[in-house]
From TrEMBL, chain A:
Pfam families reported in the protein's UniProt record: BPD_transp_1
Broad class of where this protein is predominantly found: membrane
TM annotation in the entry: 7-31, 67-89, 101-124, 136-159, 180-203, 238-260
Coiled-coil spans in chain: none
An example Gene Ontology biological process: transmembrane transport
Keywords for the protein's UniProt record, in alphabetical order: Cell membrane, Membrane, Transmembrane, Transmembrane helix, Transport
Species classification: Bacteria, Pseudomonadati, Pseudomonadota, Alphaproteobacteria, Rhodobacterales
Protein name: ABC transporter permease subunit
């Protein structure tokens, strides 16, 4: 008995229209010749030209990428450690407090994280003279803190799914714990680590609230630049910038999807072959 | 047992101290400590000097004035009410749109499913700020979308009700609409995850026993997806209630939401104790649904 769920498919079409019409509208208007961002005045690519000649945008993009790279890398290391800890160390003093501390940043409203980071940095500067000024360092520290918990969640979930008997076997065969860690555990959870890094990178690249609180004079990330322009209203050059960003992310996500899909399929094939050759 | 052995190995070599200690210390230093400073600041006294607060003065260290203002001043109560109402309405709308979408995703063929899932995740990965901005372009007075709505409205209603444009920007309606738009993937993904795990054999059994499709949904599918509904609901409600970007860009300045109020108290009014007290109150309000969430999560994991 196979029925076409007409109702569900209709909802799905409306849902995707809802998702994509605003974005498509933005892309179309990025080619608008009119100065008024919402009135069509013919086709033009002049906003792209003005965008690429805008040094402010390039500087902000470079700063954003630097912060995202550094914070995602450190967040991945710390988050992976925390994820492994939570999945494998079932008993240690303070585990409850630790798991609470790892979940808390996930549910903390961003405004509160932002304000508490800012007050913290101001107080620290007052008490111990560090950080001297707010900017790259303070933004990066704040980004590491709130993106590492996302990495933790992903790594922990993956660790709980993986087969522990391989670790057991390695230990039975006399491996030292760090050998087990680097030769077995980390390679097995590497897809989770990679997606954790990508997520942390995106979160950092996208963040405006926490960045706006932890930044200082002269440190404008791309979201902060867009934020300050958008607060004044809709402008056509932001349409062009947005289009480029959406296309970059779109291509990135599709490529990542294809690569992950292929890796997964390859792994499945290899696993099957390994079982067959042993059978 | 196996986990115990793994960790004992590490303990003996002193490795576990590093593995646990590094993230632990980081979170204590850069998350817990800053938050405790905010809690302390919420009972400080506002001061005109720098830093704009002090402990003591005419109050014996702890000054609860900020909290009493949160509870008595209509501005804060209204802001809390607006935030919670908007977040709740957005959550319900996300559920009403997201549930059928998630259900549909589990019913399509495998090839289609991956493509459609990718289409759900894609907005999730694109800039949040730009997705809000996209709607600003759609809702503006002269936009094609607003023109379409205006024409539709004028076509349907009598002549004296005709409008020149639909007022959308800077209203609570705009806030809820954009929240639904930006948070919908947060609802769809956990719902999809919980619906995908359901055994289709149960549906078929119910059908064989004579249930109608609606009954199958109500009695079989819906009860089993409650953990997904709660997870999705929390993922939408909590960030929506504390939202700062959306109300600032498309919201009504005369009825601010709580996130915007905290930020204004802090940067414009420079009343750090007040900003901290509002923040702590918001967090306390968030704790209740969160406890509910972790309660259900623990229950779901226990039943597995």
């Amino acid at each position: 008995m196979k029925r076409r769920p007409v109702f569900l498919i209709t909802i799905l079409c409306f849902g995707f229209a809802f998702f994509y019409i605003p974005i498509l509208s933005m892309i179309v208007y990025s080619f608008n010749a009119s100065r008024l961002a919402t009135v069509w005045g013919g086709f033009s690519t002049k906003w792209y030209v003005s965008l690429f000649s805008n040094a402010q945008v390039i500087d902000a993009l470079v700063l954003s990428l630097k912060i995202a790279f550094v914070s995602a890398s450190i967040a991945t290391i710390l988050g992976t450690m925390a994820g492994i800890t939570l999945a494998r160390f079932t008993k240690f003093r303070g585990r409850m407090a630790f798991s609470g501390l790892v979940t808390a940043p996930l549910i903390m409203p961003e405004v509160i994280t932002g304000i508490s980071s800012l007050i913290f940095f101001i107080m620290m500067a007052d008490w111990i003279g560090w950080p001297g000024q707010r900017g790259f360092t303070t933004i990066t520290l704040a980004h590491i803190t709130f993106s590492m918990v996302f990495v933790t969640t992903i790594v922990q979930a993956r660790m709980l799914q993986t087969d522990r008997t391989i670790e057991e076997a390695a230990m039975d065969l006399g491996s030292r714990p760090w050998q087990v860690m680097f030769d077995i555990t980390l390679p097995v959870i590497s897809p989770a680590i990679v997606s954790g890094w990508l997520l942390a990178f995106t979160i950092s690249l996208d963040d405006v609230v926490i960045t706006s609180f932890t930044t200082g004079p002269g440190s404008t990330t791309l979201p902060l630049l867009i934020w300050s322009k958008v607060k004044l209203g809709v402008t056509p050059d932001i349409n062009a910038l947005a289009t480029l960003m959406v296309l970059t992310v779109g291509i990135g996500v599709v490529l990542a999807g294809i690569i992950l899909n292929r890796a997964e399929r390859k792994r499945l094939v290899e696993e099957r072959m390994a079982y067959q050759s042993n059978a | 047992m196996s986990a115990g052995r793994f960790s004992r190995w590490f303990d003996r070599k002193g490795w576990s101290a590093l593995l646990i200690g590094a993230p632990y210390l980081w979170l204590v230093a850069f998350f817990l400590l800053p938050f405790l400073i905010v809690v302390a600041m919420s009972v400080a006294t506002k001061s005109p000097t720098a830093p704009p607060f002090s402990f003591g003065g005419e109050y014996p260290v702890v000054n609860l004035e900020a909290y009493s203002r949160v509870l008595s001043d209509g501005l804060y109560l209204r802001a809390f009410l607006t935030s919670i109402t908007n977040a709740f309405v957005a959550m319900v709308l996300c559920l009403l749109i997201g549930y059928p979408m998630a259900l549909c995703l589990t019913r399509v063929s495998k090839g289609w499913r991956n493509v459609l899932l990718m289409l759900v995740i894609l907005p999730f990965w694109t800039s949040f700020l730009l997705r809000v901005y996209a709607w600003m372009g759609m809702m503006g007075r002269n936009s094609w979308f607003n023109g379409l709505l205006t024409d539709g409205w004028n076509f349907l209603v009598p002549l004296d009700w005709a409008v020149r444009s639909v007022p959308m920007m800077n209203t609570n309606f705009a806030v809820v609409l954009v929240m639904v738009y930006t948070y919908l993937p947060f609802m769809i993904l956990p719902l999809y995850a919980s619906l995908e795990r359901l055994d289709p054999a149960l549906d078929e059994a119910a059908m064989d026993l004579g249930s109608r499709p609606w009954q199958v949904f109500r009695d079989i599918t819906l009860p089993q997806s409650i953990p997904g509904i709660i997870a999705g609901g929390m993922l939408v409600f909590i960030p929506a209630a504390g939202e700062l970007v959306i109300p600032t860009l498309v919201g009504d300045a005369s009825s601010p939401m709580i996130g915007r109020l905290i930020s204004d108290e802090f940067s414009s009014a420079r009343d750090w104790p007040m900003a901290s007290a509002v923040a702590v109150t918001l967090l306390v309000l968030m704790v209740v649904p969160t406890m509910l969430y972790s309660h259900y999560q623990a229950k779901a994991e226990g039943s597995k």
